[in-house]
Amino acid sequence: MQLGYFRQKLRERRAQISLPAVLLAPIFILVIYLLFETAKVSMTKVRHQFALDNAAYSQMSATTTYLNAVAMTNGPMPFRVMRYYGEQKIPRKNSGSGEAEITIFNLFYRSGAVPSLLGDTDGSQPNLRPPQASTDWGVHYGVSPDQEGDTDKNGNTVVISRKDWEKENPSLPSDQETVRLISKQLVENYHFPANKVGVPVLTQYLTTYVYDGSIYKSQDYVYKELTKNLTMFREAYYLNVSNCKRSECGRESAAKLRPYLTVSTKPYEIDKFEVHFSDGGPKASDTHGGAYSTQLSAPDDLLQGQKLFQFAYLDPSSRSKLRSLQRGVLLKQTFKLPLNHFNINLEQKYKPYVRTKVSLTCPRGNNNCVWPNPLPKYSITLDP
User: Fold this and answer.
1) Which residues of the chain, if any, have pLDDT below 50?
2) DSSP secondary structure string, 121-182?
3) H or E stretch including 332?
4) pLDDT of residue 367
5) What is the pLDDT of residue 10?
6) Phi and psi, residue 309, nearest 5°
7) How far apart are CA 187 and CA 293, in angstroms?
8) Residue 73 to residues 212, 223, 249: CA-CA distances in angstroms?
9) What per-residue confidence (pLDDT) applies to 137?
10) Which residue in 254, 275, 327, 330 has the most C-beta neighbors within 10 A?
């Protein structure tokens, strides 16, 4: 009787739909599992791709910050401070001819003691600001009117021209050389007495470059600490994924990037320098008895054993690394996939990885915007 019942049910129309539906149910369940497992794989890859991009950008941002900070200390920063003296002027002595007066900034600039920005050679241009799209800030030293070949009281050769400074590999002063900060000829023609004018201004100049050097050293220290073990890269990668250990996250890509981040700069410092003051009062009508020389030693007299910072420049190895970073460094990072319900080892079969190409560039063909003619415009680009 039961057999007859089933035969009757199978002949009904509803049975023609129910039977295929029962047979297709496992297929629908399998499709759902496949979609779920595919979503897990996609989600894992997206996470690791974001982690790699974020880690590369974070780590490279330390390099751009460092290079841009050094470029700022190499000229724009001391220029901005000393530009305050663009309104303070000193008169020419009565017996001379030429400009009736010059600014104190111009005295330092024309002596080669401080560079100018955008051709502001007297520090008096109003609202001086480089255009946003500018690729050349024109940071250059002036040409001193003094003649080469002078010697100081101790018989040391006096460095007057800054031409050999404005090179990728600047010529360092020797122990037998003294750098002249204030021109002898200019002081012979203009009133620059030590009291009330010369000493306070010279003190401000030295203080400016002491602080400038301190900022450079701080930036240099911080950058070395951040790149020692690629701390920022590893932390950024670890915090954006959930399936790797802190010590192992991003190891392959970190190892590929590490050699390019050992960018270093060398400070250009002077320890012996010469200044001139005029023998007379500050007014044009005062007696002007000429210029007299004063020799100073930074370690002994002024800076407690430290030399006077002027600027910092890239060594040849670092310039080579920056050219490589300009072309871009391709980072590839393998990652682990989550387990699936089908017990298929996708890692062994497909070897999944994420990749990104990171570039560090500035608006110069050789990618050197640190020195000479510094330009603090390094930026980062990520390409898939």
Assistant:
1) none
2) SSS--TT----TT-S----BPPPPSSPTT-B-TTSPEEE---TTTSSSSPPPP-TTEEEE-S
3) strand 329-334
4) 97
5) 53
6) -70, 140
7) 10
8) 6, 15, 36
9) 96
10) 275
